[in-house]
Amino acid sequence: MLFSCNNKGKVLVKGKDELTNVYKKINIYDGLDNTFVFQPDDDCELRQVLIDGQDVMGSMVNNQLTVTLHGGSKMIVMFNQRGYDVNGDRRVDISDVVTLVNMILGQ
């Protein structure tokens, strides 16, 4: 499995292998459940988890995700600074500015 993670948090694989700020290959055995625990830094939050290009954030509970991965899978994990995603869509873009302006104007 190819794994990519930025430097605003870490990922524990099966509770032991800590991955942070890496792009590397890790061994995942086909057909087994593999537990990934996402631990954002204090001022950060989990922004996106992609497995083979599919967003799997919807299946997370308490920053923990259990998935069955295949040996050739690719996972991308992105952490983000907390507080900038005003509208809760897990992206920081112009729509957050519009939402913030509307909040200030009471709309």
Give a verbal description of the structure.
By secondary structure, the chain is mostly beta strands. The protein has one helix and nine strands; from the N terminus they run E-E-E-E-E-E-E-E-E-H. The chain has one helix at 94-104; strands at 2-5, 9-13, 17-19, 22-25, 33-40, 44-51, 54-55, 64-68, 74-81. The radius of gyration is 16 Å and the shape is elongated.
Question: Quick gist of this model?
Answer:
With 107 residues, the chain is mostly beta strands.
Q: Main attributes?
A:
1 helix; single chain; five-stranded mixed sheet; 9 strands; four-stranded antiparallel sheet; 107 residues; mainly beta
Write the layout of secondary structure elements.
Blueprint: E1 2-5, E2 9-13, E3 17-19, E4 22-25, E5 33-40, E6 44-51, E7 54-55, E8 64-68, E9 74-81, H1 94-104
Q: Uncertain segments of ≥5 residues (pLDDT<50)?
A: none
Q: Summarize model confidence as the mean pLDDT.
A: 78
Radius of gyration: 16 Å
**Structural class, please?**
mainly beta
SS field, number of helical segments: 1
Strand order across the biggest sheet? 4-1-9-6-7
Helix content bin? 10-25%
Shape: elongated
